[in-house]
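Hi there,

I know you've been waiting on this one. I reran it after we fixed the sequence typo, so this is the corrected version. Both the input and the resulting structure follow.
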Amino acid sequence: MILLKKLINLFVGLLLIQGSSMAALPEVPDDANAAKVWKLRRDESISELLGKPENEKIPGLGEMLRQLESLHYRECLERDQVVLSLRTALLAIPGHAKYFAEEIAREQKEVEPYLTNTGPRVSYDFNRTMYFKTLSYLPSPETIAVLGQFLSDDKDTPVPLESPGSDWGENPRANSYGSTVTIMDIGLRNPPVAVTRRDENPDTLLAETRAWWDEIKSGRLPFSFIGQLLEYRFKPDGTWESTPLPPSVLEQDPKPVVSPASRVAQPAAMNTAPILTTTKPRWPWILGGVTAMLVGIIWLRLRLSASK
């Protein structure tokens, strides 16, 4: 019965996610002229979003950026130019990171009455994962400040498994862990935890990142992003100051430069075989269909068992 309940809750959550998700951007065509048209359409979308209110502009630009950076779009000049435009536009908006923090906090409060893995919480867990992913592509002191605050958010600490060995597995971790991973991925020159340590004990990584944040927020420790020529330091009032860095620091950055921050300075032109994603993602419906089928099978088995 526990498994059946979780299947139903997962199915409801997937429907909520599907109803709120943005259609996937079309793949960048192989043809050079078609790729230019693709870029023109994305530029038009960016211009349209820039004319909208903040509560539409920021999530719209952020979702476009997240898709192009995290999904399997063809690596090419046109894609990188659009990514550069999106990131530059977002970083120029005061509150670009605060918006996502407020959305996480708002949804977190809304799902307080619901149990783990029930429909609304499945939607919340999906959304906060996407928000943290988007923040990982926005290298700025505002983003670091937002992520630092999340390091103390343990409200969503998962409950113990209801039936070890036959459950869906570990529930989504608290936002403090999501923040730790995002800080790891954002492209800091001297991160508290290297990306290569991702699979280590999460509690150890969180503790080290919290210790680093104490030094950062106090202003004792400056920070900078790979590919950028500015170093930041927080002030006691929570604002920050920036200091120019010599161009020579770029020579010490990892090669090839792949951090989100580096794309602000120098988008790379690469060509690989295309992976088509020209339609709206099908995985929520596919997984939803499989879930519905499993629910039906389990329900039928329960009915047959009860009739014996």
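Quick highlight: The longest strand covers residues 230-234.

Best,
R. S.
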